[in-house]
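Entry 14. Structure prediction run on the chain below.
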Amino acid sequence: MKYKHIDSALHNFGHSFVSLMNYVDDVYVCDLISSMALGRPQNEVKIDFSAGVSSLPHGSPAPLIKSVEYWQAWLPKLLESQNVNPGSLGPIVLRYRLTRLGPEVVVESTDDRGCAHKVFVSSTL
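Output returned:
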């Protein structure tokens, strides 16, 4: 395992999750998250992919729940494909926040050495 690959793997995961390739039941997940963020404190939605759908805000739309379940199952395969041991990372949290400049997407985790990893996926999509 190479620790230097963690940031790029987290970035790739976050970018894929909020991209237009992530749609369920003919709905873009990034649109669902954006709508949810408008009604949340600090205009932010956090998704903990270790906890899965239980980390979603109450009343989350069914397509978002399906998407989180799919990506949660796929995440270990993505990490392994990029030479990152999934067991060496703590909870992986995606934060989607609306700012004046547009959406801000951050993916965070901590490795087994205690080193925090915080990757800005995009300030605007």
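DSSP finds three helices and six strands in the chain.
Filed with the rest of this week's runs.
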